[in-house]
What does this fold into?
Amino acid sequence: MGAFAKYRRRTFFAPIAAVVVAAACITLSTSAAAAEYDLNSRTYLYLYERDQVAGETQKFAPLYEYLSLDVWEVGNPDLSFHFYGWGRLDLADESRGSSTNGNLSSAYLQYLHPRGNSLAKFGRFFLAEGTTTEVMDGLFVKGVTRSGFGAALYGGSPVENTITSSGGGDSLFGGRVFYVSPGVTEVGLGYFHENGDFQGENREEIGGDLWLRFARSLDLTGRAVYNVVTEALASHRLALRLVPVRTVDLKIGTEGYKYKDLFQGVLNPAFLPPAINPDDEVQNLFADLDWQASGILIVQAGIKSIRHLESDPGDALRGEAGFRVNLKGPVNLLGISAAVQTADQKQNEYQQFRGWLMGSVNRWKFSLDGLTWFYEETSGGEDTTVQIVGSAGYQISPAFALSGDLRYTQSPQFKEDVALLLRADLQLGSSGRGE
It folds into this structure.
């Protein structure tokens, strides 16, 4: 760990300073008039050293700051403000191509009708409506009538992180119509359009979503997205959840997608040709089981069949089983699991074993996690990955906690990968919410 002594003295960069000052000003200016607020600061110092198989040693010490602020009753009982952003400063070697970076993830005003049947957001926010999930700068409005029929509309500019030369999108708009009966069903149909350069085309999608409860022990969820530009079904998922008795929870389903239709709008080259075969199609079948075997023992198992249209990467079958035990004493939770994947190609076959525990003593919390992968095909003469993660934290006060993680990894890619993560978590809030 001596490599971590190689720090560079640098002034804390402007984006984080601006974020902290802005959040503090908003909190101080509104706290007197606002009924409630939450201010959360999470600071991470991540120290790691990697000895690569090729012989190069990498030494990094990035400092991260994550800041969130929620203020309720901003001049109006139904109006609130929400903010979330982060920044990074490298104290040693550059870890991501530059010594600093950051992102304003969200900053928006929200109006919620007193009866809860209408909602509006303005600013930068994460949009999750039906089958659409985006980060955008703009306006979102949603309302539902007493009969259960409703609609949502949105428009603005997309917020996209890209490392390609495509440039991403310029503007987006869309909406969704739906019907909801609380506790019984919700079904919706949505439309999404984004102007931009996505493999030479705009993005245009139609999506449908469904949730239906047949009985207390049986419900069905489904979603499908149709790519209007490529004129094909991009993805679909259908899952049936059964709870035949109180101690058994079973989910079975199917999902599928086509690469050229699903990834037409992505901006990361990892999902673009030639990294993937655009003509490939994937069809998965899965089943997951949770069984409360006793008051302290929970058994979990799952199986997944992965079928590819193309021979490369070919088909695979993965099975997993394990259990966790609730205990009394310093160690209050532990678990063991094992997974096996067989495949058409040996490079995709492996066995995975994991054991972990969690505990607490007074204000101390701790955990230990060990994972091992055994690969059927060697890489660089190695066929095993071992990773051990230990964590400990101390709650100094209800509002302030310190913690840290120590991780050791040995794999075909790295002879040794040693990382230390230090955290400081500060949570401030007015009486009531957030305490």
